[in-house]
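Good day; I would like, with your permission, to put a structural problem before you. What I wish to show you is a protein chain and, alongside it, a tokenised description of its three-dimensional fold. I would ask you to consider whether the tokens describe a fold that such a sequence might reasonably adopt. You will find the record immediately after this paragraph:
***
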Amino acid sequence: MKTLIVYCSSHGTTEKAVGLLSENIAGDVLAVDLKRDKIFFNLQEYDAVIIGGSIHAGEIQRRIKQFMRKHLEELLDKDVGLFLCCMRDGEIAIEQFNHSFPLELRKNAVALGLFGGEFLVSKMNFFERQVVKKVDGVVTDQSNLDIASIMEFVTRFNSRKVLV
């Protein structure tokens, strides 16, 4: 089994989650940060695809949205996992998740995950720091990355029924 993890990481939180996924997903795994990596991959070579990103100003990264739009038909024929890193919880986190991923993908996904998030103020630019301070009152690094949710996602993803 070959799994492709496609993600965007702005300050490193999503990358941390992807590291845990990569270490624990069964089979061969290739992780590609659409924001940073210039790796060519053929989606047809993968049995499964995990897509994830984080919320910035209420939206998932543009490159994630573009990837899903471009490859939607192919993705619907694969085992797909979707995850989101965000500092919100409860209904707000669910709304952000639903807004980030197309309904068709959510309905067909074998695993869905809300992984918590981090405010890494030390890695933010001036504008980002000002927004986080004004909106959330945060001026220092804060972590709420949910390792248990990540491992629960791994368990669901690894236990999917594989058609041979």
The first helix runs from residue 13 to 24. The chain has a mean pLDDT of 88.
